[in-house]
Specification:
heterotrimer; A alpha+beta; B mainly beta; C mainly alpha; A: alpha+beta; four-stranded antiparallel sheet; 7 helices; 4 strands; about 15% strand; B: Herpes Virus-1; 3 strands; about 20% strand; Anaphase-promoting complex subunit 2 (chain C); Cullin_homology (chain C)
């Protein structure tokens, strides 16, 4: 059915700027699954997590948004992440990183790289964007200090005031511009 | 009065007998989907076009059910470690109902 | 008080005048002979009353030698200009003679309406003109001055009645009532009438052309008329124009050159007249298509000559509004006129600008009609009862042509025509189906509706009728070519379900014969069928259970879930005095089955007896039996089985007015829920991508399944969301209101 949805012909005024969409050639079954996931994600109301494709031409690159869970040190902060799906998704995990600098024991403060088992060796084909976003959200409150990517963060985790200072030093609020 | 039915053109849907309890109340929307492709069991996996016997289900001893094609593809990846994607126990196909028709 | 100087000046002047008149003759003899000459000349020139025979005669017998000598003397005395002035004055003074004549003729004409009178008047005027003309020897200047004065006087006294008569006379030169001398044009010319009344004479030509076009072309659309009209112009109008517009031409070549300009005006007028006529007839021409091809070819040619495209568009749009796009018109009729419009305008204007302008309002209108898609789809699958097919059977089956962006690398690319509006879509000649489908911005709706229709038709096939299934299969094969294989994959599964059902039934029957013959369908591949809570009572349930058991034996990994409200039951009722055999829907069958246990049931008992069904549907089903005289509603909502037939009483109540219960949810009904879904997507993209401009939201919404709103509709939707405080819009971009 994805062929149907991509063949929508909007009025001409819109056709011109979006020429890319007609050349949108995506591997059918993966696109199908991603469309399905997007639909599920949109219809479910999981508080504080969301994601959407970056552009209408490419279903394989998404932007995600995670709100820090309340009653954690990240409460009130919002983080952007980018999600990049491989062509053999869901048999292989998507590549995920933080775009908003995130001071966290399992996140590299410079590259945004994340150390989370389900994104590496514990990946399963039944996981989805939604499960990943939920895992990341809970990772914020419950870091795995045993294998830190950011040793500084791991070191100050137990002193919340110091941690919060560092966190806020790096944090950059999301600007609401396209 | 005696009512005799001479001929009845009825309409029915087929369902996979997954062993799960039939949710009463007709077409419940939260029906079972294959965890890998997210398509309902009675639909077909992304690589098939015709549902049913051409795109059968596979049962694990762990009781998890998938489209056979989806599961075999998963098992074929190194990441799977031959485990059920649901519970990560080693996959053992239940001897139950494959190719029995 | 005259001074000496002044006096001498006057004297000198006088002397000079005298000398000129007296010349060198002795005494005043020169002056006397000048006076004689003046009198002779003046007498000769004096405009005579030609109605007076004496006066005319005197003039005719004048001694020309004497007259010439007299003029010669006046000329030598340089008094000719004065003589001319006197002459012209006398013309004016004498003109009452001509006026009298004119009035006499016109009175006669008005009384008799005899064109011959006008004819004689013209020649009479020529007679006056000739009679009063000065002799040739006086030279062209005097002649010209005379002619001018004569004509000026003439025009000043011609009463309005003359113009009418003159026009009638001109008309008669074109359509001779009586044979008119061709020299009449010379007479017109002599009197200056051709120049004076040039516009009037041309209008005679124009009116003749209009009359002829209307008379010979109105409602004659099968053959092109232009060629015939041109021939008529060249044999009837051009010869008429010759004496007026090509006077003095020495040969045909020269005449042609002189006629070129005016001829082109007449030809233009002919084209315009035909164009106006066809424009006024266009709606009916389209109705008549393809028997009106001739008219269309004419119109195409006329439009190239006459710039009337916009009035054609206006006329057709107006006619469409008035005659087509109103609630009384049948959708099928609108569609067939729409298709005919497409075909016709494509003949008139291949680039499709006119078509776009005319078709757009029809498309908008059709889009708002709920049954449009269904009508088109019924036509696509060649519904037997649809009568005339919109689609030409000879039209090659080809894939739907999508409206594409312009490809400037296309060697065949042409710039859009100059009158194309900003919304104009290059409408490359495409097939009718594509154009019909393009009424909607997406073909999704069609595919959905196609499924619904196919489902209805397949489920209606009660017997083992593989021929009908095959027919549907052929239809789907054809539609696949149009819509693409993938779009119709679902239909493929539906058809396969039909053949599988038959095969499975064959097997089940061979194991254990049953009177149940189900169509077993694959869920997700059939349009959403309305669910039902009906539980079939008594023997029906037993039949279902038995069949389902046998099915699961055959297919151990599958089970059956009945859709009890669908299908048909063939029943036989054995009553005390009669046996009734008939086909009924399952609900009717369920109710009558209940009556085999006891004879009287209330409505509520019946409804709970079949597991629950809405009252309207229940009443409708029960009334089927009441109408058949099997049940009787003694008290309202209490039904009794009539074991013995009773006198047919008038039906106690008519069937409830509720609409036929639709078994299949129409695709458009599902549309309603979609907006809620779209909002979720908009919320999702604004959360992750920040503020977005409207057109970006529109393109991103293609991720929402089945999104088919126009950008205008989206704008309205965003506006509504803003009013609800969900979003904020600024400078054309939208963001969530947090």
């Amino acid at each position: 059915m994805e062929q149907l949805t991509t063949s929508l012909a909007p009025p001409r005024a819109n056709l011109k700027p979006s020429v890319t969409s007609s050349t949108q050639q995506v591997a059918g079954s993966v696109a199908k699954r991603l469309t399905n996931e997007l639909m599920t994600l949109m219809m479910s109301s999981s508080p504080g997590i969301s994601a959407f494709p970056k552009s209408d031409g490419n279903l394989f690159e998404w932007v995600g948004t995670i709100e820090g869970p309340s009653e954690t040190i990240y409460s009130g902060l919002t983080f952007r992440i980018s999600i990049s799906f491989p062509a053999n998704y869901p048999y292989v995990a998507p590549a995920i990183k933080f775009d908003t600098p995130c001071f966290h024991p399992n996140v590299d403060i410079n590259s945004g790289a994340i150390c989370l088992d389900i994104l590496q060796d514990k990946w399963s084909a039944v996981y989805s964007v939604q499960t990943i976003l939920l895992s990341l959200q809970s990772l914020l409150g419950e870091p795995n200090n045993a294998s830190p990517l950011n040793t500084d963060a791991a070191a100050v985790w137990d002193t919340p005031d110091a941690f919060r200072t560092q966190l806020m030093k790096h944090y950059q609020p999301i600007k609401d511009t396209a | 009065m005696k009512v005799t039915v001479k001929h009845w053109h009825a309409v029915a849907q087929w369902r996979w007998d997954t062993g799960a309890a039939e949710p009463e109340g007709g077409d419940a929307d939260n029906e079972d989907v294959c965890g890998i492709c997210r398509v309902p069991y009675e639909g077909c996996c992304p690589s098939c076009k015709i549902p049913g016997d051409d795109c059968p289900l596979i049962w694990g001893e762990c009781t998890h059910v998938f489209h056979m094609h989806c599961l075999l593809k998963w098992i074929g990846t190194p990441a799977s470690k031959q485990q059920c994607p649901m519970d990560r126990r080693t996959w053992v196909t239940a001897e139950r109902k494959i190719g029995n028709s | 008080m005259a001074s000496a100087a002044l006096r001498s000046q006057v004297a000198a002047k006088w002397q000079e005048g005298f000398a000129r008149l007296n010349r060198t003759e002795p005494g005043i003899s020169g002056l006397i002979s000048f006076s004689q000459a003046w009198n002779i000349a003046a007498d000769y020139l004096h405009p005579r009353d030609i109605t007076d025979p004496l006066s005319a005669k005197a003039h005719g017998t004048a001694d020309m030698a004497l007259v010439k000598a007299a003029f010669d003397m006046i000329n030598r005395s340089r008094r000719l200009p004065v003589m001319l002035e006197t002459f012209l004055d006398s013309i004016c003074n004498q003109y009452y003679l001509i006026a009298r004549d004119i009035h006499r003729y016109l009175a006669q004409y008005e009384q008799s309406a005899d064109i011959g009178v006008m004819f004689r008047l013209i020649y009479r005027l020529v007679d006056w003109y000739r009679a009063w003309a000065p002799i040739e020897e006086l030279g062209p200047t005097i002649r010209a001055a005379y002619t001018l004065t004569f004509q000026t006087q003439l025009f000043s006294i011609l009463p309005p009645g003359f113009v009418r008569g003159f026009k009638a006379l001109c008309v008669s030169t074109l359509v001779p009532v009586v044979q008119i001398s061709p020299f009449i044009w010379d007479a017109f010319e002599t009197l200056g009438l051709t120049d004076r009344y040039e516009g009037l004479i041309a209008s005679v030509g124009y009116e003749r052309i209009e009359a002829y076009v209307h008379e010979t072309c109105t409602a004659k659309w099968d053959e092109p008329c232009l060629e015939r009209l041109r021939h008529w112009m060249s044999t009837q109008i051009v010869p008429w124009m010759l004496p007026m517009y090509a006077k003095g031409a020495l040969n045909t070549e020269e005449a042609r050159g002189m006629l070129q300009n005016v001829g082109s005006r007449f030809d233009f007028h002919m084209n315009k007249t035909l164009c106006d006529l066809r424009t006024s007839e266009i709606f009916d021409i389209i109705i008549d298509f393809p028997d009106s091809m001739g008219a269309l070819y004419d119109l195409k040619e006329c439009l190239q000559r006459v710039d009337q495209r916009s009035s054609l568009v206006q006329a057709l749009r107006k006619a469409n509004r008035k005659r087509l796009l109103h609630p009384g018109a049948d959708t099928k009729l609108i569609l067939s006129q729409y298709v005919a419009t497409i075909k016709c305008l494509r003949i008139i204007d291949p680039p499709g600008v006119l078509l776009f302008k005319v078709a757009d309002p029809i498309r908008r209108y059709l889009r708002e009609r709920p049954d449009t898609i269904r009508s088109i789809v019924a036509n696509l699958v060649g519904d037997d009862d649809s009568g005339d097919s919109l689609v030409d059977e000879n039209e090659p089956i080809q894939p739907l042509q999508q409206l594409e962006t312009e490809d400037y690398n296309d060697p065949n690319w042409d710039p859009e025509p100059i009158d194309a509006g900003p919304d104009f879509r290059t409408n490359k000649p495409s097939d009718v189906i594509s154009t019909l489908v393009s009424i909607y911005d997406s073909k999704d709706l069609f595919v959905k509706e196609l499924q619904v229709l196919l489902a209805q038709r397949l489920l209606a096939i009660t017997d083992d009728n593989s021929e009908k299934v095959e027919k549907e299969r052929r239809n789907i094969e054809i539609l696949k070519i149009r819509f693409g294989e993938a779009a119709l994959q679902v239909c493929e599964v539906m058809l396969k379900d039909m053949t599988d059902s038959k095969r499975i039934d064959g097997h089940v029957q061979s194991q254990k014969a049953s009177i149940v013959h189900p169509t077993i369908i694959s869920r997700h591949f059939w349009p959403s069928l309305e669910s039902s809570d009906i539980v079939m009572p008594g023997q029906f349930q037993a039949l279902q259970t038995e069949y389902a058991k046998e099915f699961s034996t055959f297919k151990p990994d599958k089970k059956l879930r009945w859709l009890p409200h669908l299908g048909t039951v063939h029943l036989e009722l054995q009553l005390e005095d009669r046996t009734i055999e008939m086909d009924v829907p399952p609900l009717e069958a369920a109710f009558i089955e209940l009556f085999s246990a006891k004879n009287v049931w209330t409505m509520d008992e019946l409804i709970s007896g079949v597991g629950g069904v809405d009252r309207v549907a229940a009443l409708k089903a029960l009334l089927t039996w009441v109408d058949l005289g099997v049940l009787k509603e003694d008290v309202e909502n209490t039904f009794r089985l009539l074991e013995v037939q009773e006198e047919a009483a008038p039906p106690p109540r008519s069937a409830p007015a509720a609409a036929e219960e639709p078994t299949v949810t129409a695709a458009q009904q599902q549309q309603a829920d979609q907006m809620r879904l779209y909002w979720k997507f908009i919320e999702g993209m604004l959360t992750n991508l920040g503020a977005l401009p409207l057109d970006r939201i529109q393109t991103m919404l293609r991720f929402a399944p089945g999104y088919d709103q126009t950008v205008e509709q989206l704008a309205g939707f965003m506006e509504a969301a803003r009013r609800e405080g969900l979003v904020v819009g600024r400078d054309g971009t939208w963001k969530l209101n947090r």
